[in-house]
Design goal:
Elements (H helix, E strand, L loop, with lengths): L4 E7 L2 E4 L3 H12 L4 E4 L4 H6 L5 E3 H9 L5 H5 L1 E3 L1 E6 L2 E6 H5 L4 E3 L2 H14 L4 E2 L3 E6 L7 E5 L4 E6 L2 E4 L17 E16 L9 E3 L6 E5 L5 E7 L10 H12 L11 E15 L2 E2 L2 E3 L5 E2 L7 H20 L4 H28 L7 H14 L3 H12 L12
Parallel strand pairs: 1-12, 2-3, 2-13, 3-9, 6-15, 13-20
Antiparallel strand pairs: 4-8, 5-8, 6-7, 10-11, 11-12, 14-17, 14-18, 15-16, 16-17, 18-21, 19-20
Helix pairs in contact: 1-6, 1-8, 8-9
Bound molecules: flavin-adenine dinucleotide and 3,4-dihydroxybenzoic acid.
């Protein structure tokens, strides 16, 4: 095997590892503040743009992308939703976010599209995104000149001296493990189920998302556009998609989502994959001049659509923190981890709550099923309970006691 070609030494203000939504938006927000960054990514541009993941943006995420000038397709193709349906015990109930929260909504706009918009904006601004790098390393994190090393696609080894490094490299990245284990506290929960997701070329059979509790397991009807639907089924962890031919997926969706007088339309399956379900929080989100953001620091199970929104909220905070730090003010950088973790834990709780209310645990008894059904009846009949769901789903800035509840 040939080793990397002669090394190159470079300088930037912020080294960013990972061109997912977190790393891309951070490099864009820093550029708006006149701050240089180098962004390195393991995968190809095509892979990053095609990776099927989240689909729902909180109102605050839409506002953030708009404020950063990333409008255009989001405004024309994003589908604004004012609520969701919860289905259980043979009934389908609407939770009206607009009415319950004084007008707050969410927007269906796929993560693939957010990533495409961000990559296009960065490249149009002349930024270099290094795709398909290997052997990424971060070092000297406890100094004020941390170093980012990587081998670019052409085989050249780079060493970039930075003022700060942002670890936006997802759950399996190298940045979180670069923090000494003794300084990290991890809280984690694995769930005894996974999601099998399909993307199908068929008009959605619903105007808003349907979250369905069913004795056979959870199902979700989401959408991507007026022509493309996104649907999910609860399956056992480790399920192989090979065991789920398209006919079997549609038959199971029909069983779990079906209601008399309502039709689930079927169409060609464009993509099919299985996602594990995990809650994971690693604290703190900063070590010296290394700042973690998004999935590199925390994972939520997908029920409730929080993962992408948390990643965007982290980097909005981080751009301000780094702006201050590079101008000689450390207050926001010092507060970064604690400030983010407050929102992270709220979303971690909400995602866990939605997940446990809607999924059938293997071996669960009738007691558990009745408790879930009672909770579902409560959130669809009590205004206070419905408002809590609506407030969490649409996203809101966590309030601290003493900061005023009025
Ligand atoms: P990522 O999107 O994971 O981006 C990290 C990037 O870092 C990747 O591009 C990766 O290739 C790169 N990277 C990793 N290691 C290195 C390295 N050593 N050097 C350079 N680059 C590196 N959330 C929802 O809300 N709803 C959903 O339906 C949903 N579905 C999901 C399905 C799957 C399979 C997964 C994995 C996640 C899903 N999520 C979902 C979560 C959501 O997509 C994530 O929260 C979101 O992608 C987080 O963005 P990020 O930028 O922090 O991380
Ligand atoms: C989608 C994913 C989610 O996890 C969710 O709660 C709602 C929608 C989606 O991919 O569309």
């Amino acid at each position: 095997m040939r080793g990397p070609r002669t090394g190159r030494t470079e300088r930037t203000q912020v080294g960013i590892v990972g061109a997912g939504p977190a790393g891309l938006l951070l490099s864009h927000l820093l550029a708006l503040r006149g701050i240089d960054s180098v962004l390195v990514e393991l995968r190809s541009r095509a892979y990053c743009e095609a990776r099927q993941r989240a689909g729902v943006l909180e109102q605050g995420s839409v506002d953030l992308l708009r404020a950063a000038g990333l409008t255009g397709r989001l405004d024309t193709e994003g589908l604004e939703h004012g609520g969701i349906y919860l289905q259980f015990g043979g009934e389908r109930q609407h939770v009206d976010f607009r009415e319950l929260t004084g007008g707050r909504t969410v927007t269906v706009y796929a993560q693939t599209e957010v990533v495409k918009d961000l990559i296009a904006a960065r490249l149009a601004a002349g930024a270099a995104i290094e795709f398909e790098v290997t052997d990424t390393e971060v070092a000297d994190l406890e100094t004020d000149r941390p170093v980012l090393r990587y081998t670019s696609a052409d085989g050249v080894r780079h060493e970039v001296t930075c003022d700060a490094i942002a670890g936006c490299d997802g759950f399996h990245g190298i940045c979180r493990p670069a923090i000494p284990a003794a300084l990290r506290t991890v809280r984690e929960r694995e769930y005894p189920y996974a999601w099998l997701g399909i993307l199908a070329r068929v008009a959605p059979s619903t105007d808003e998302l349907i979250y369905a509790h069913h004795p056979r397991g959870f199902a979700l009807h989401s959408l991507r556009s007026p022509q493309v639907s996104r649907l999910y089924l609860q399956v056992p962890p480790g399920t192989d998609v090979a065991g789920w031919p398209d006919d079997k997926v549609w038959a199971e969706l029909q069983l779990r989502l079906g209601l008399p007088g309502w039709d689930l339309k079927e169409g060609p399956v464009l993509e099919k994959s299985v996602t594990p379900m995990r809650s994971f929080v690693s604290e703190p989100m900063r070590h010296g001049r290394l700042f973690l953001a998004g999935d590199s620091a925390h994972i939520v199970p997908p029920t409730g659509a929080k993962g992408l929104n948390l990643a965007l909220a982290d980097v909005a905070m981080l751009a301000d923190a780094l702006g201050g730090l590079l101008a000689g003010r450390a207050d926001l950088a010092d507060a970064y981890s604690a400030t983010c973790l407050e929102r992270v834990w709220r979303s971690t709780h909400f995602s866990w709550w939605m997940t446990t209310m809607l999924h059938a645990s293997p071996g669960a008894d009738e007691m558990e099923a009745q408790l879930q059904l009672s909770q579902l009846r409560y959130v669809t009949s009590s205004r206070a309970a419905a408002t809590s769901l609506a407030e969490n789903y649409t996203g809101y800035p966590p309030l601290r006691a003493g900061a005023g509840l009025g």
